[in-house]
Amino acid sequence: MLATRTGRRRAAALAATAALAALAAPSLAATPATATPPAAPAPADYDDTYYKDAAGKTGDDLKASLHTIISDQTKLSYDAVWDALKTTDQDPADSGSVILLYSGLSRSKSSNGGDSGDWNREHVWAKSHGDFGTATGPGTDLHHLRPEDVAVNAVRGNKDFDDGGSGFTDSGGSLTDADSFEPRDAVKGDVARMIFYMATRYEGGEGFADLEVNGSVDNGSNPYIGKVSVLKTWNDEDPPDAFEERRNQVIYDTYQHNRNPFVDHPEWVGAIW
């Protein structure tokens, strides 16, 4: 009788272990365009692997290590960005829509284009700042490309980032004045971390300009974007949320296979700048 009970317990334990393993095992199926992006693992999961060469470093040494790490990426064409954004920026509450960055509106994935009421591809690091346009590389890097309403995108234009200004149609709380743009509160940190990513990823190689963050708001076509002090504050005040973390993960898993290190480690902004 004892042997029978022991056998049953062992069988039950083995069955439970198998069930847990099945739940934990990653799916090998391709991620459909309308699927909810996977939850991001804790950044610590990457500290001993992806970020191992950055461990213990600060300042220029940390920036140089991160540049080397994140420069290992798959590059997309500008046309491919359309479909990628439909997955990276999918509305968690509506699989048929995307969330627009500055306005916060949810808009149908099929409404992408260049007409009034459409959403288009916003370069958060304005493509004229360094004159890289839509070239494969900085011009197509998903870590700073986001869906935005055509008219709102035009309001932002190529302005630098700073606090202050006035609202506008479909602003969602974003503000603008003659020489700067302030995103809505919910994405200020997102914008800052995208800017710091670009300044780390593109350091003058591959035929592109050396992108840098500075303290100005009138940088024109120079390869700079400011204000660094404001962007650092935004990074601190608006830490990464679930949407931003999922976005980072799906870019890593499905498209570029590199990460925005400042989403995984927002404190690295202060360690470098």
TrEMBL record:
Keywords: Endonuclease, Hydrolase, Nuclease, Signal. The keyword Nuclease applies. Residues 156-182 are annotated as: Disordered. Residues 1-29 form the signal peptide. It holds the Pfam family Endonuclease_1. One of its GO terms (molecular function) is endonuclease activity. Residues 168-177 have a biased composition (Low complexity). PROSITE patterns: TAT. PANTHER family: ENDONUCLEASE-1 (PTHR33607). This is Endonuclease. The lineage of its organism: Bacteria, Bacillati, Actinomycetota, Actinomycetes, Kitasatosporales.
